[in-house]
């Protein structure tokens, strides 16, 4: 059976999610700004994870926890209740969701 993600794992996942989001926005022409402005493609959250404000950090951590929970559910349903080692099942099913 898979084991729930630890707080450290959830934080790492949140950091990865934010880094991917930043990379995608940058590829679309967005730049860091003091506030969000869709017309000039400026966003105040285009900063390293460690520099996010408390609300954005909490929102990302919540989203990462929901994703980890979903991966755990998929792992239990598709891996026959835990026929694979937990780390393998968790990573394989995370890739399916991405």
Notable features of this structure?
elongated, mainly alpha, 98 residues, 3 helices
Task: Provide an overview of this structure.
The longest helix has 25 residues, at 54-78. The protein has 98 residues and is mostly helical. The two termini are 22 Å apart. Helix 2 (54-78) packs across helix 3 (86-97). Helices cover 59% and strands 4% of the residues. The chain has one domain.
Terminal Cα span: 22 Å
Strand content: under 5%
Number of helices: 3
Q: Helix share of residues?
A: 55-70%
Q: Write down how many β-strands occur, each being a DSSP E stretch of 2 or more residues.
A: 2
Instruction: Compute the average pLDDT.
Output: 83
Question: Which word captures the global form?
Answer: elongated
Radius of gyration: 16 Å
| Unreliably modeled segments | none
Order of helices and strands: HEEHH
